[in-house]
Amino acid sequence: MVHNCVFSFKLSSAREGIRSEKVRELIPDMLSSYTVNIAYHANNPDVGMALEKDAGRYKLFNSDVGLFITLAFKDKKYTENIIYNKLLSDKLDVNLGYVYENVVAQMLIAKGNNLFYYTMESKTSNHLYEIDFLTSVKDKICPLEVKSGNYRTHKSLDVFCNKFSNRICNKYVVHTKAYKWENGIYYIPVYMIPFL
Fold it and tell me: pLDDT of 168-179, one tens digit each?
């Protein structure tokens, strides 16, 4: 399975007859065009994630968040200003998780980070836990879970931190509210990403 623009899909269902190897060949060209940012799956979430990244599992993010938003909400030849006004005033009743992940990806890249994420299956159900981004600080890692809505529940972060507690420096929930520190987790507004 290949991840693209934060949405998961099988390439063959998105475009009949296309193979993941063909798309993988295009990735260097897409990256050198600076139109996308790529996050690879970290098979071993520890320092040196690039050594054990899975080149076949990745998420692509648009490197221009403004263009991404315009394309995401383009239902006709132009996007009405009311959409932008509601979006900017946090009154657009739509799941904006993919927008916030894209913003965080762009900020992490601008700060000089390579992008990595991690997924793991639940031991008790078919649920898949995902850490949106992993960064490293010295010899430890910092998991970041991005939330556009309810930031108080962060099961993926909790499960990840229980499993890899000896590897973790700081834990972050990136959200749209004010900064706070609670129960060992830094809850930071999106605009604080450059200061990590």
Answer: 999 999 998 899
